C-alpha cells in the first residue's frame, strides 16, 4: 500500500459530511469519544497525523472504523493543514468535511445539519461547531468576506478578535492560503468551493449568524481598509438606538477617511441614485454612505436577511440590503468610521466598472419596485406627446394637402412606445401588488 493512501475501514454514509481530526500521542480518549459520537449519528471520521510514524491513537481510530489519512512531509501538528482532509473527503465522495480541532469540546451536530442544508450542493470545508455544554452563546459575531487576502487577513482577524465573541471568515474560493491563515489567526472559517461573489459571501454570513443566534453581526472587509477598532462604535449605537441596521459613514461626524476625489464624486452619484431609488427625497433623511460595507445587523435583520432570496451575489448586494431594510421599515443609523486607501494592493474593483454595475442594479431595482414611476409616468408623457404630434400631422395635411411622413412616423412611434410603457407599468404594478 502506498504510504499516503487513505486506509478505508468502514464508510458509514457518504450523504453526510465527514468529521476530520488530527491524531496526536495524547488524544486517545478524545478520538474514541469523537468517533463514538460520530458513528452513532451516521458520520464518518477522517483521521490524519503529523510525521511519517503513526501515533498510538491511530490504532484507536482504526478500531473505531475511522478512515486514516497520512500527511507525509509534515513535522508537527501545526503543519497539518486541512487540504489533505478536504482532498480525501472529496475523492471519497463526501459532500464536505467538518474539521474538529478543539478535541476537549463537542461537535454541535444540529449546527452541522444546518450547514448541510445551506451548502447549495457544493463541497464545503468548515470548522466544527464546538460547544462545551449547550449551544454556544455569541453576542457580537464579526463576519469577514475574503477573497485572496492571504497577505492581510491574519492582521485583520487578530485585531477583530479583540472586539468580537467570535470571528467568522468566509473564504470565497480563494486561490491562495486565505483560509488556512485565517484559522491560524483564530477565526472560524467557512469555505466556498468556487468564487461566488461578495453577495454570496454575505448570505453565508447571515445564515451563520442566525444559526449561532448572534445578537449583533458586524461585517467588515478582509483587505484591512476598515478599522476593527470601530466595531464597538457600531454595536454601541445599535444598542443605544435599537436600529436594525447601523452603517459605517466615511463622510459624517467622527469619520477619519481620506477619500480620493474621483472616488468621492462617484460615491456621491451612487448615494443620490440609491436614496432616490428608495423613495427618499429629503436630503436630510438620506443615507450618506450607501456603499460602505462596514455594517452592524441586529437579530431581526440577521433573520430576515438569512431567509431572503432578494440579494444579488455580487457587489450590488450592499444596495440590495438597503432596499431590504427600507421595505421592512427598519431603522437605519450611521456612525463615522475609518476607511484606509493607502493599503498596497487592496482588493478594490475598477471604479468605472463597479459604478456601472451599481447604477444598472439601481435602475433595475427601481423598475421592479416602482414601475409606475419609472415606466408609467414617462410612458404617459410619451403617449401624450405622440398624440400631439399626431394632431400636428393631421393639421398639416389638411392645410397643405401634403402628408408629412417624417412627422407621422415620429408621432406613431412616440405614441405606441408610450402606450407600451404604460401597459408594462400596469402589469408590473399588478404583479408586485399580488406577488410582493
UniProtKB/TrEMBL annotation:
UniProt keyword Transferase present: yes
A GO term for molecular function: transferase activity
A Pfam family this chain is assigned to: Glycos_transf_2
Domain Glycosyltransferase 2-like per the UniProt entry, residue ranges: 142-264
Presence of the UniProt keyword 4Fe-4S in the record: no
Keywords per UniProt: Membrane, Transferase, Transmembrane, Transmembrane helix
Transmembrane intervals: 372-392, 407-428
InterPro entries assigned to the protein according to its UniProt record, in alphabetical order: Glyco_trans_2-like, Glycosyltransferase_2, Nucleotide-diphossugar_trans
Superkingdom of the source species: Archaea
Name this polypeptide is given: Glycosyl transferase family 2
Species this protein is from: Halopelagius inordinatus
Phylogenetic placement of the source organism: Archaea, Methanobacteriati, Methanobacteriota, Stenosarchaea group, Halobacteria
Amino acid at each position: 500500500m502506498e504510504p499516503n493512501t487513505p486506509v478505508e475501514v468502514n464508510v458509514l454514509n457518504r450523504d453526510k459530511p465527514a468529521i476530520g481530526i488530527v491524531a496526536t500521542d495524547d488524544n486517545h480518549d478524545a478520538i474514541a469519544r469523537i468517533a463514538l459520537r460520530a458513528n452513532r449519528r451516521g458520520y464518518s471520521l477522517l483521521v490524519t497525523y503529523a510525521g511519517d510514524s503513526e501515533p498510538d491513537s491511530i490504532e484507536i481510530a482504526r478500531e473505531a472504523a475511522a478512515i486514516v489519512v497520512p500527511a507525509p512531509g509534515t513535522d508537527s501538528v501545526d503543519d497539518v493543514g486541512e487540504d489533505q482532509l478536504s482532498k480525501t473527503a472529496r475523492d471519497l465522495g463526501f459532500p464536505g468535511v467538518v474539521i474538529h480541532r478543539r478535541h476537549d469540546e463537542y461537535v454541535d451536530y444540529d449546527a452541522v445539519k444546518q450547514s448541510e442544508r445551506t451548502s447549495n450542493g457544493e463541497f464545503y470545508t468548515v470548522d466544527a461547531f464546538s460547544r462545551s455544554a449547550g449551544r454556544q452563546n455569541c453576542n457580537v459575531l464579526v463576519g469577514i468576506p475574503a477573497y485572496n487576502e492571504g497577505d492581510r487577513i491574519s492582521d485583520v482577524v487578530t485585531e477583530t478578535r479583540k472586539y468580537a465573541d467570535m470571528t467568522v471568515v468566509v473564504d470565497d474560493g480563494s486561490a491562495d492560503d486565505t483560509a488556512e491563515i485565517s484559522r491560524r489567526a483564530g477565526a472560524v472559517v467557512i469555505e466556498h468551493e468556487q468564487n461566488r461573489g461578495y453577495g454570496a459571501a454575505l448570505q453565508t454570513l447571515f445564515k451563520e449568524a442566525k444559526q449561532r443566534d448572534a445578537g449583533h453581526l458586524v461585517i467588515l472587509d478582509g483587505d484591512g481598509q476598515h478599522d476593527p477598532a470601530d466595531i464597538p462604535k457600531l454595536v454601541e449605537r445599535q444598542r443605544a438606538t435599537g436600529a436594525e441596521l447601523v452603517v459605517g459613514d466615511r463622510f459624517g461626524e467622527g469619520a477619519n477617511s481620506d477619500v480620493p476625489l474621483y472616488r468621492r464624486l462617484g460615491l456621491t452619484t451612487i448615494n443620490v441614485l440609491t436614496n432616490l431609488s428608495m423613495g427618499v427625497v429629503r436630503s436630510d433623511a438620506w443615507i450618506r454612505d450607501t456603499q460602505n460595507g462596514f455594517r452592524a445587523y441586529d437579530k431581526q435583520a440577521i433573520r430576515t436577511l438569512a431567509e431572503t432570496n432578494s440579494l444579488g451575489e455580487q457587489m450590488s448586494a450592499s444596495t440590495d440590503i438597503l432596499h431590504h431594510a427600507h421595505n421592512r421599515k427598519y431603522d437605519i443609523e450611521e456612525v463615522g468610521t475609518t476607511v484606509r486607501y493607502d493599503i498596497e494592493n487592496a482588493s478594490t474593483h475598477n471604479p468605472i466598472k463597479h459604478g456601472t454595475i451599481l447604477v444598472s442594479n439601481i435602475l433595475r431595482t427601481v423598475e421592479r419596485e416602482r414601475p409606475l414611476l419609472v415606466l408609467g409616468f414617462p410612458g404617459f408623457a410619451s403617449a401624450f406627446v405622440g398624440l400631439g404630434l399626431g394632431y400636428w400631422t393631421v393639421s398639416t395635411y389638411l392645410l397643405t394637402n401634403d402628408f408629412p411622413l417624417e412627422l407621422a412616423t415620429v408621432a406613431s412611434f412616440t405614441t405606441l412606445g408610450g402606450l407600451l410603457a404604460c401597459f408594462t407599468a400596469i402589469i408590473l404594478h399588478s404583479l408586485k401588488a399580488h406577488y410582493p
